[in-house]
Write a structure and sequence with these properties.
- The chain has a domain of 92 residues.
- The protein is built from five helices and four strands; from the N terminus they run H-H-H-H-H-E-E-E-E.
- Strands 1-4 form a two-stranded antiparallel ribbon.
Length: 227
């Protein structure tokens, strides 16, 4: 005899035991884990999409081509020029030339001595065109003797060069240009070899008398009045 069981789905459970509690808790935990997993997947997808958008929006800078050799050489030359300019700027400044102030008193005193001993000013200022050569020679002898006496009495003179005039000498590099004057065909740099034309003169001692405070050195020779 076949038995038929009918299940009424509208019926409500009348008891709520431990097994039902465990089943309900498991359903709640699984539901929560499913929701969390969906949230994590959604956030990850949004982050990946944002990174891809940023990478697309930023243009890739083209690679800088290497500088040609000519530009590199030009830069090296510019640096060398700058270094040379700095060297020129930092070069030592030459010392200024200091000019000595000379007083004419000593020169005027010498003219006075030459006039006193040799009538030097009278001889120079005299018009000798009307005189014969013999007369000029006699006057020149007197002037020569007087000038020689005045010079030897108040000055000591020596020659600049000790070699014989007319002989060959060699001037080394760094010679004193104020003591030796070059003439003729000057080419190149020292040492120079040439013929000694004149020995030159230099003063080693001066014995001029000291002038009084009221002395007028401009008066080379006082005017003479005979009474």
């Amino acid at each position: 005899m076949n038995m038929i069981y009918a299940i009424d789905l509208s019926l409500k459970p009348t008891t709520f035991d431990l097994w039902h509690v465990c089943l309900a808790g498991t359903v709640v935990v699984l539901s929560f884990m499913l929701i969390m997993l969906l949230l994590v997947m959604l956030i990850s997808a949004m982050r990946c999409k944002k990174k891809s958008v940023q990478q697309v929006s930023q243009p890739v800078a083209p690679a800088t081509p290497p500088e040609p050799v000519i530009k590199i050489v030009e830069k090296i030359v510019e640096v060398e020029k700058i270094v040379e300019v700095e060297k020129l700027v930092h070069a030592p400044v030459p010392e200024p030339v200091i000019l000595k102030e000379s007083t004419p008193d000593a020169a005027l005193q010498l003219l006075g001595l030459l006039q006193k001993e040799a009538r030097f000013i009278d001889f120079i200022k005299e018009d000798i065109t009307s005189y014969a050569d013999s007369d000029v020679g006699i006057a020149a002898r007197v002037v020569h003797e007087g000038c020689n006496k005045a010079i030897n009495e108040h000055f000591t003179l020596t020659s600049v060069r000790t070699e014989q005039e007319g002989g060959k000498i060699t001037l080394p590099a760094g010679f004193d240009a104020s003591a030796v004057r070059l003439t003729g065909n000057i080419v190149g740099s020292a040492p120079f070899t040439g013929v000694l034309v004149h020995k030159g003169w230099q003063v080693t001692d001066v014995r001029l008398a000291k002038l009084t405070q009221g002395h007028n050195a401009n008066i080379i020779a006082a005017a003479e009045v005979e009474l």
